[in-house]
Specification:
Structural class of chain A: mainly alpha
Strand order of the largest sheet of chain A: 1-4
Order of helices and strands of chain A: HHHHHHEEEHHHHEHHH
Pfam families (chain B): Peripla_BP_6
Strand order of the largest sheet of chain B: 8-7-9-10-11-14-15
Low-confidence stretches of chain A: 1-8
Mean pLDDT of chain B: 89
Helix content of chain A: over 70%
Distance between the termini of chain B: 86 Å
Low-confidence stretches of chain B: 16-34
Protein name (chain B): Branched-chain amino acid ABC transporter substrate-binding protein
Mean pLDDT of chain A: 86
Family (chain B): Belongs to the leucine-binding protein family.
Radius of gyration of chain A: 23 Å
Oligomer: heterodimer
Number of strands of chain B: 15
Keywords (chain B): Signal
Number of helices of chain A: 13
Shape of chain A: globular
Shape of chain B: globular
Distance between the termini of chain A: 47 Å
Order of helices and strands of chain B: HEHEEHEHEEHEHEHEHEHEHHHHEEEE
Family (chain A): Belongs to the binding-protein-dependent transport system permease family. LivHM subfamily.
Strand content of chain B: 15-25%
Chain lengths: 354, 419
C-alpha cells in the first residue's frame, strides 16, 4: 500500500494545458464567427453569394496553378523560388504574343471557334515549353551552384532572379497595363440566377486535369518516385542510382510548365497584364501554397481556391469589407491558420532533419 | 625682372579667376545675386500612362517659350525637364518626387517649378520648396486639383504644406470641390442617374474627388454606394457583381487611369453592361489617356475636366493660332488640354520672373504677395483674364467641361456652370 502510494506519487501530474485549451476555444470562436458571417450573407442574397463564390473560385483556380509550381519545387529541394511569380508573368506576355501573332489581331478579342481552340492548345504547349526552359536554365545557372550553400544563399538568388525577370517583363511590356487578345468565349450563363462566366469552365477544364496529371506523375511514375526519393534524402537517392541533378531539373521543368499554363490562362481570362503582375500574384500563390501546406500539391490547389473564394466573398457580398481590405483579410486568415495549423491545411508536420 | 614677371603672372591669374568666376555667376545663375539667365523646372511624369499628356505639355511649353524669344523681360529663360515617374512604377513615384524636390532646391539657377501633374506628388514637393533657404521657391501647377493644397480641406490643410507659413504654391486649374459637384449635378440633370457606385483608387486625388461626387450626389437625391478599387487586384468582377445586385445605373471612377483603370473599365462593361446601359463617369484623372480613349469599353463614357477642352480653348484667336503652330511643329494636336494649362502656368511664372529681381524669393513674392500676377485675356493662353489670388494661390478662372468618348476620341459635350 505504502509502495503503491509512493509509486502514485512519482506519476506525472495531469495538468490542464490552459494555453492549448485557450487556443482551441479561440479557434472555434473564429470558425463560428466566419460561419455566421457566411450564413448572414447567404441568407441576405443567395444569388449574389453564389456568384461571388464562383468568381472567387475562378480567380482561385488561377492562383492554384501558380501555387502548384511553388509547392512542387519546395517539395523537392525546399527552396522558395521567388522568381516563380515573375516566370508566370513572362508566361502571360509570351502567350499573349503567340495568340496575337497567330491571329494577327492584336488588341481585338477573337471569338472562340475551331481555329481558336487550335490556337489555344498551341499557345498552351508553347507557353509551357517557354517557361519550362527558362526555369530549367535558372536552376542550371544559379540554383545548382548553390545546392550545398547555406539556405539563405539560394533564397536571395531567387529574389535576384525575380528582379531580373521583372526587368525583362518591363522591357517587353513597358510599365503600364496592356490589353491582350483572348480566344475564349465571351459572356456568361445563368444557372438558377447565378451568373457564371464562360471562362470559368475553361479554367476548371485546365486546372483539374493539370492537378490530376501532376499527382499521377509524382505518385505513379518512375520519375515521380525518384522525385520523392530526392525530396526525402538526396544522398540516399543518389546511392540508389537516381540522377539527382536530372530529377531536380525535371522538377523545375514541370514547375516552369505550370507557370506557363497559368500565364496563358491568366492572359486569356483577365485579358490584361502588367510587368509586375507576377509579384502580386506570386505573393498570393505563395500564400496559397503555405495555407494549403507547402509541398502538398492538393494543398496548393485548396489554398489557391480558398484565397480566391475569400477575396470573392469579401468583395462581392453585402457585408464584405470590400477591396480596400482584401489583402488584410487574406493575410489575417493566413496568420490565424498558421497559428492553429503551422503545417497548413493539408501539410504534414515534419521535424527538421539534423 | 624675374620678380616682376612672377608678380604679373600672379596678377594675370587672379584676374582670369575673377573673370571666370563672374562668368560662372552670370551663366550658372546664382539665385541670391540677381542673374540674367534663369531656369524653370518642369516636373511631370514622363513615363507610364501619363507620358502622352506630359510630352504634350512639355512640347507646348517649349514652343511657347521659343515664340516668346526664350525671355521674360531682361531674363533669359530655359526649361529643365524633371521626371517624377519611374519605369518600374509606370506613374508618379513618391521617392522620385521627393528626390526631384531636393534637386530643384539644389539647382541654384532654377527660380521656379512648373508642375506637378499629380496632387500626391505636389504634397511631397511643396514643403521642400517651401523650406528652401533662398526661397521659398515658387511652384505653379497646371493640373493639381486636390483642394487641400490651397484651401481648408482635410485636417491641418493647407497649413501643413507650408512649414514656413509663407505660401509658395499656385495653380491655374479648377479644384475637385467644383469638379466632384459638377459631375454629380451632370449625372442627375443630364443623365438621369438614380443609383451610383462611387469608386476611389485610394490615392489622395481619387479619394478627394470621389468624396465630393458622393456628397453632392447624395444631396441631389442619388442613392450612393462607395467602394475602393485596388490597382493590383486580379480583376474587379466581384466588385461589379455586387453593384449589379444593387442595380446601380452609374459608376463614378474617382482616380487616375494609371491605377489599372483599363482593367476596371473592361470589367465594368463585362458585368454591368455598356456605358449607355450603366453610365460611366470619370474625373480628369481619366482624361488625356489615348490608351483609355481607344478602348471599345470606353465608348460613351463621360468625363469632367476642370477647365476648358481643346475645342473651346481654340475659339480664342491667340490659342487657336498657338494650336495651329503646335500641330505644324509636332504633327498632331496636344494629347490633353492640360498641355495648354501647362503653358498658362508658364505664363504666370514668366510674368513673375519679368517683374522680379531674378531671385527665387523675388519670383515667389510676385505671385503670392502684394497684388499678385495677372495675365490679360489678349495674351493668356486660356483666352480670358487670368489672375492668381496672392492669398491662396488659386486662379480666378473656374471652368468645368463635360466630355464624352466618341469614336476613340475625347469630345466636348458642354461647359458646365460652376457655382
Amino acid at each position: 500500500m505504502a509502495q503503491s502510494t509512493t509509486a502514485a506519487g512519482t506519476l506525472p501530474r495531469t495538468r490542464l494545458n490552459l494555453s492549448a485549451y485557450g487556443e482551441r476555444i479561440a479557434g472555434y470562436t473564429i470558425l463560428a464567427a466566419v460561419a455566421v458571417w457566411l450564413g448572414i450573407n447567404f441568407i441576405d442574397n443567395p444569388q449574389q453569394f453564389m456568384t461571388a463564390s464562383v468568381i472567387g473560385i475562378s480567380n482561385g483556380a488561377l492562383y492554384a496553378l501558380i501555387a502548384l509550381g511553388y509547392s512542387l519545387v519546395y517539395g523537392i529541394i525546399e527552396l522558395i523560388n521567388f522568381a516563380h511569380g515573375d516566370l508566370f508573368m513572362l508566361g502571360t506576355l509570351f502567350s499573349a504574343s503567340v495568340v496575337a501573332a497567330a491571329f494577327g489581331l492584336l488588341n481585338e478579342p477573337v471569338a472562340m471557334g475551331p481555329l481558336g481552340w487550335v490556337v489555344f492548345a498551341a499557345s498552351l504547349a508553347l507557353a509551357a515549353a517557354f517557361c519550362a526552359s527558362i526555369n530549367v536554365a535558372i536552376e542550371f545557372l544559379a540554383y545548382r551552384r548553390l545546392r550545398h550553400a547555406p539556405k539563405l544563399a539560394p533564397l536571395i538568388t531567387a529574389v535576384g532572379m525575380s528582379f531580373i525577370l521583372q526587368f525583362i517583363g518591363l522591357k517587353w511590356n513597358h510599365s503600364g497595363q496592356r490589353d491582350q487578345p483572348s480566344v475564349l468565349p465571351q459572356g456568361s450563363i445563368s444557372l438558377g440566377g447565378v451568373e457564371i462566366d464562360t471562362s470559368f469552365f475553361v479554367v476548371l477544364a485546365v486546372v483539374v486535369p493539370v492537378l490530376v496529371l501532376m499527382t499521377w506523375i509524382v505518385t505513379k511514375t518512375r520519375a515521380g518516385k525518384a522525385m520523392r526519393a530526392t525530396a526525402q534524402d538526396p544522398d540516399a537517392a543518389r546511392l540508389m542510382g537516381v540522377n539527382v541533378n536530372r530529377i531536380i531539373s525535371f522538377t523545375f521543368a514541370m514547375g516552369g510548365a505550370l507557370a506557363g499554363v497559368a500565364g496563358l490562362m491568366y492572359e486569356q481570362v483577365v485579358t490584361t497584364t502588367r510587368y509586375d503582375v507576377g509579384l502580386q500574384l506570386g505573393l498570393i500563390a505563395f500564400t496559397a501554397a503555405v495555407l494549403g501546406g507547402i509541398g502538398s500539391l492538393p494543398g496548393a490547389v485548396l489554398g489557391g481556391v480558398l484565397i480566391g473564394l475569400i477575396q470573392g466573398l469579401n468583395e462581392g457580398v453585402k457585408y464584405g469589407a470590400g477591396q480596400r481590405w482584401t489583402q488584410s483579410v487574406v493575410f489575417s486568415i493566413l496568420i490565424l491558420m498558421l497559428v492553429f495549423r503551422p503545417a497548413g491545411l493539408l501539410g504534414k508536420a515534419t521535424r527538421e532533419k539534423v | 625682372m624675374n620678380r616682376r614677371i612672377k608678380a604679373l603672372t600672379v596678377l594675370a591669374a587672379a584676374a582670369a579667376t575673377a573673370v571666370a568666376a563672374t562668368a560662372c555667376d552670370s551663366s550658372g545663375g546664382d539665385s541670391g545675386s540677381g542673374t540674367t539667365e534663369v531656369v524653370v523646372g518642369v516636373d511631370l511624369p514622363f513615363q507610364g500612362s501619363s507620358k502622352d499628356a506630359s510630352d504634350s505639355t512639355w512640347n507646348a511649353m517649349s514652343l511657347y517659350l521659343e515664340q516668346s524669344g526664350n525671355k521674360a523681360g531682361k531674363y533669359k529663360v530655359t526649361l529643365k525637364k524633371y521626371d517624377d515617374s519611374t519605369a518600374a512604377a509606370g506613374k508618379w513615384d513618391a521617392a522620385q518626387c521627393t528626390k526631384n524636390a531636393n534637386d530643384h532646391v539644389a539647382n541654384t539657377s532654377e527660380v521656379a517649378v512648373m508642375g506637378t501633374y499629380n496632387s500626391g506628388c505636389a504634397q511631397l514637393q511643396i514643403p521642400v520648396l517651401n523650406q528652401d533657404p533662398s526661397g521659398p521657391m515658387l511652384m505653379v501647377s497646371h493640373a493639381n486639383t486636390n483642394p487641400g493644397l490651397t484651401k481648408t480641406w482635410d485636417t491641418g490643410e493647407p497649413g501643413k504644406w507650408y512649414p514656413t507659413n509663407k505660401r509658395n504654391y499656385a495653380r491655374v486649374v479648377t479644384t475637385d470641390d467644383y469638379q466632384g459637384k459638377a459631375a454629380a449635378q451632370m449625372a442627375i440633370k443630364d443623365l438621369g442617374v438614380k443609383n451610383c457606385l462611387v469608386l476611389d483608387d485610394t490615392e489622395t486625388y481619387g479619394k478627394g474627388v470621389a468624396k465630393q461626387f458622393a456628397d453632392e450626389a447624395t444631396k441631389q437625391g442619388i442613392k450612393v454606394s462607395t467602394a475602393a478599387w485596388d490597382a493590383k487586384a486580379t480583376n474587379y468582377n466581384a466588385l461589379f457583381n455586387k453593384a449589379k445586385t444593387d442595380a446601380v445605373d452609374c459608376v463614378f471612377t474617382g482616380g487616375v487611369f494609371d491605377n489599372n483603370g483599363g482593367q476596371l473599365v473592361k470589367d465594368k462593361v463585362k458585368i454591368l453592361g455598356d456605358n449607355k446601359t450603366v453610365k460611366l463617369i470619370g474625373p480628369d484623372g481619366m482624361v488625356g489617356y489615348p490608351e483609355f480613349d481607344k478602348m471599345p469599353e470606353a465608348e460613351g463614357a463621360y468625363q469632367t475636366f476642370p477647365g476648358l477642352g481643346l475645342s473651346d480653348l481654340a475659339k480664342s484667336p491667340v490659342t487657336g493660332k498657338f494650336l495651329t503652330d503646335y500641330k505644324a511643329k509636332y504633327g498632331a494636336d496636344p494629347a490633353s488640354p492640360y498641355a495648354l494649362y501647362g503653358v498658362q502656368a508658364l505664363q504666370v511664372i514668366l510674368a513673375a520672373i519679368e517683374k522680379s529681381d531674378g531671385t527665387r524669393k523675388g519670383v515667389t513674392e510676385q505671385v503670392l504677395s502684394g497684388t499678385g500676377v495677372s495675365i490679360p485675356a489678349s495674351t493668356a493662353i486660356l483666352g480670358k483674364d487670368i489672375k492668381i489670388d496672392p492669398a491662396t494661390g488659386d486662379v480666378n478662372a473656374i471652368d468645368m467641361t463635360i466630355q464624352t468618348i466618341t469614336g476613340g476620341k475625347e469630345t466636348t459635350v458642354k461647359a458646365w456652370p460652376v457655382a
